[in-house]
Amino acid sequence: MDTPRWNRRQFVAATSLGSLAAVGGAAVSARAAASSAAGKLAIRGGTPVRTASFPGWPIWDKERDEELVLSVLRSGVWSRAKVVAEFEKKYAELIGAKRCLATTSGTAALLTALNALDIGVGDEVLVGPYTFCASIQVILLSGALPIMVDTDRETFLVNPEKMEAKITPNTKAILPVHIYGLPADMDRINAIAKKHKLVVVEDACQAWLAEYRGKKCGTLGNLGCFSFQNSKHLTCGEGGAVLGDDDEVMDRAFAYHNFGRGGGLLGTKFRTTEFQAAILLAQMQRLEEQTQRRWDNAQYLTTKLRAIPGVLPQRLYDGVTRAAYHLYPFRIDEQVFQGVTRNKFMGALRAEGIPCSGGYGRLNEAAFIENTLSSRNFKRMYSAEQLDYCRSQLECPDNNRLVDEAICFSQRVLLGTRADMDDIANAIGKIYENRSQLV
Length: 439
Ligand SMILES: Cc1ncc(COP(=O)(O)O)c(C=O)c1O
What we know:
single chain, alpha/beta, Aspartate Aminotransferase, domain 1, 15 strands, 40% helix, 13% strand, disordered N terminus, binds pyridoxal-5'-phosphate
């Protein structure tokens, strides 16, 4: 993945030829060449690099999605039955797990997984703060304490270097999140788990078909959890799944999601419907091609962005054989950009016709954490010392910096063409060349 950075002379030579598309040997896109030559930034009244839109999401068609949904409608069997079972079988095969349990959401999948592994009151769960709030909420909802492990700013993922120091006699599990579909450093996380006899629940809610050493995310720990919410690469509006190889644990998961029936457990209802499964079966037919397209485009874009001074695309861990890129994240070095802030950069990029966003907030400082720790329930479950210990671990300086630095492209942007990627790189190159207009 690593490509040598271009020095400034090479960079200027490439751009002065008319387009950054020359970097990496790609064909020059005429529209990009024309626009990158125009020096005035669009935010200052210049011509934008791009006016065309990127692909929309979700994608469906009459033959597959509509037909499968209608056949469920016509059958009159709408709650969990054979279509859900068919989806579970096919998704388990696709990911490479023995079993799959479909649930109503990714959050429900994570809660089911923690419950099936008997994680609850008195347990500490190691988790990183650069994620969606549900990754932390499920730990608290289970009655356990989330212990924050700071983020590695280069990879956007939980920093395994900082993990072992957080282990106490109460630590029961690690919940690595493959955020943005970028696989976490699972060799090191699994080694730590093995050494300290911890279970690993992967939050693969954004990592459909992402791979680490050729194995799919969601099969790298004890259980893997997925989300099928509307923005997700495999979607049915709202849905989720737990995957695992251990029959006993998966039987507990099944019982939990179905009122505890068959397991003699306390459970709840997280059963999905035949409609959701029908849409997932249709969507699954496109998943491999779309995943590969995002991966190819992301690698191409990374090569091009690395050639621009001060642009820092995310680094993938050595074991990553494919990332899913639910978002494509990068940072800029504000010094190289002569003081242009992240927000000013994003404003300029949007004006050039490239949609982007700023990523996650400081989840380690989210109000729901303190409000839960100081709730009546938690005060009954834990001593003041235990709660204070949890609070004391919330400080994550690297994460706080990353939150201010991250810039992201959505997955649908990566479903575009090579010329679309050229437009993105050209827009960023144009901003770099004309950065003095922003300060
Ligand atoms: C990393 C992560 N974990 C958990 C979830 C929860 O999934 P859901 O929204 O399906 O409940 C999401 C959803 O966005 C997510 O991105």
